[in-house]
Amino acid sequence: MSLADEQAWALPVDIATFGAHLAAFITLRPTIETLRLCNRFGDAAQGITTLPIELIEHVEQYLLLDERAQERKRWIRDQACCEKLCEHIDHLDDDQLHERHQLYHAMQEAGDIEHSDEDRRCVVERRNEDSHSPEHIAMQYVKVKECLEHFEEHYTCDAIDEFIEGWLYICWYRRDAWRSRLSDVGSGLSGENISKVLRKDFGLEVRVVYGPWHTRQRGEEEYLERPTTAYLQLRVEERLFQWGPEVPVPADKKLARFLRAVKVLGLKVVAGPQEMDTLECPWKRQDEDERVGNIEQQPSLVRFSEFADSHAWRSSWRWEYRQDPQACDPYFAKADTHWMWAVVRY
Fold it and tell me: Which domain of life does the UniProt lineage start with (predicted)?
């Protein structure tokens, strides 16, 4: 009996940046290809055909930067809620102006925020939030944030619960959205399969890896996801597993694919999750990894193993084994268990 594991030459990257930037790459590729073709083969005497390629590249970067920023904001926001990295005020960003406006005035009615001159004019003129000045809208954000932080600092949980009840659904919605995004990494995004695009354009695969629960998630595993990292990888053939950590290094041409993907997609290389020990007790809890130092920018040989959290107690988990005699365990049923990849020690 052996662990269900794989080896790969892999490089860990920030998963929100990876997903957002690859989504932008897929979305804008038809536009960018059209732009290049028109510049190169257009026959008009004026317009795009007369522009130097350097200017065309600047236009491409401008389009990509804008699309990446919009996508990345959504990916980071959803990840924060699903991994409990969010704060109360994060759920009242500029996409929730109406909810933030309502909370602002509710706090005024409760005596927690003073009325400004513009607030008084709005009451007299019966204007809605769309009539507020940009400066006042920004001020509302600051005041609401300060008020919520004051409640947290002084442990006035009842006040927080009273105010957040109306928009707590936003956090739950974003958690579902993040799980969908993780699924998209393997099954498709914007009509195209991410793995297919990455393999075709960069000669690499992607693997979503889950790390140990961290301290901020303690007691809430039932509603959250483990911290996740994306690994760009060149999979090692199973026949080479016997080499263990001495697997032959790929040719430089293949290793260069990682650098090209990081550069073209603007990815952020990260330290990666803490290695999990396959010999440790399954219920053992691990705190956040406090490793410091330089982050390796080159791919390395990594061993991945499959594991699953218990349906009943997600802080309890076990490793997947080939020909597993525990396959009938009702808490780890094959049909409906979410099997995940983890980085493990050799």
Answer: Eukaryota
